[in-house]
Amino acid sequence: MQLAPNVKGAVIVTTPQDVAVLDAVKAAKFIGKLELPVLGIIENMSGMVCPHCGKAVDLFGTGGGKKAADDLHVPFLGAIPLDPAMVRAGDEGRPFILLHSGSATWVAVNAVMESLVKIIER
Q1: How far is CA 35 from each of CA 8, 47, 116, rounded to the nearest angstrom?
Q2: Which CATH superfamily hosts domain 10-121?
Q3: Tens-digit pLDDT profile for residues 3-26
């Protein structure tokens, strides 16, 4: 925070596993001690989009981010599934969102961003 004095809030990103959610809750409580609002929680790696059939597979479970948001009384911004195409795009330095618009992961990222923009606009 000393290096970024203009920060007005934080977004907590977790994965669905219990241990990750515990870390996210600790992070949110730390942010609170800095007197910053938690703008919301995102659940990343919330399932995986099967590259063969397109259906979601719950590799790490689901719902941990939503539960943490409910427990902390902060907005749940959404869940983003793991997508092998996103991994490849990142490794290649190409923007996933421009290459895969319309995919389940793109739709989820877009929904999260729309939720976050609404919160920031308030």
Answers
A1: 9, 33, 19
A2: P-loop containing nucleotide triphosphate hydrolases (3.40.50.300)
A3: 877 888 999 999 999 999 999 999
